[in-house]
Write a structure and sequence with these properties.
Elements: E1 9-13, E2 21-22, E3 25-26, E4 30-34, E5 41-42, E6 60-64, E7 72-73, E8 76-77, E9 81-85, E10 93-94
Parallel strand pairs: 1-9, 4-6
Antiparallel strand pairs: 2-3, 4-5, 7-8, 9-10
């Protein structure tokens, strides 16, 4: 169970229209980061008016499928924390993504 405590937290999410976002905090159990080469989309993003998630829980990165990120090791995020927001034309991105 100690490995779960090492998961990178979602420190902030500025994507207000996501069902898991409340007051710039993500309340999903975990988020998945994926996307084509050079992109790091938060694919947990759900544009619903109904709020979901786990109230007081702060989300962590459950999986990172962006192999080109410097923080990715064995499909896990090694960043201390991430920020999710809008970058370019996509709806929700991992703004912490740094191309290796």
């Amino acid at each position: 169970m100690t490995e779960l405590t090492k998961m990178s937290k979602v420190a902030e999410c500025s994507v207000a229209d996501c069902a898991y976002n409340e007051s710039d905090a993500c309340h999903a159990g975990a988020v998945t980061i994926a996307g084509p080469s050079g992109q790091a989309d938060c694919v947990t993003f759900i544009p619903l008016s109904v709020k979901g998630g786990f109230g007081q829980l702060t989300a962590a990165v459950g999986a990172c499928q962006q192999l080109e990120c410097t923080y990715n090791a064995d499909l896990e995020c090694g960043a201390p924390a991430i920020q999710v927001g809008v970058r370019g034309s996509t709806k929700a991105d991992c703004l912490t993504f740094a191309e290796a």
